[in-house]
Amino acid sequence: MTPGIQELMRRNERVWDAYRAAVATGDLDRAMSATETVTSLVNHPVMTGAADRDGLRRHLADDVLPHLPVDLTRRRVSRTVDKFRIVEEELVAFTHDRELPWLLPTAAPTHRRAEILAITVVTFRQGLIAAQRTLWDHAGMLAQLGLASDAVRSGSTTPQAEATPPTAWW
Description:
Strand content: 25-35%
Order of helices and strands: HHEEHEEEEHH
Low-confidence stretches: 157-170
Distance between the termini: 17 Å
Oligomer: single chain
Helix content: 25-40%
């Protein structure tokens, strides 16, 4: 692997880490500055997210940032990086202390704690985030929170976000 490819991979990691930090601190503009003009986000178990940049801004501003649990923690289990993507596996823990439209659409707070495994695949184009896909142990989370499997309705991501992958530049 060339030094140039290694630096590209490190740069992608820095962009992803900055994006995650911006979301965690509620800095919408900083989070959006890490994304490509054509971008998408899909939370697969519940199909929340956004199919384009304007939708991503709205999703973060309305569904995510004001609804992050106070005690939300993430602990990385593994991270795999190549030139075009990062695959991150982490343990996510939180108390369901508020409505979480991005994670549990339509479910009222249970005030119970959950710890789940989540896997995120992030695709990069020209040094910016082009797509995010997250999958987690949804059944395990519902069981920990004492929710029935039909207590959560699917969210608002349009099928286009899944059907149209980002255009490659390479």
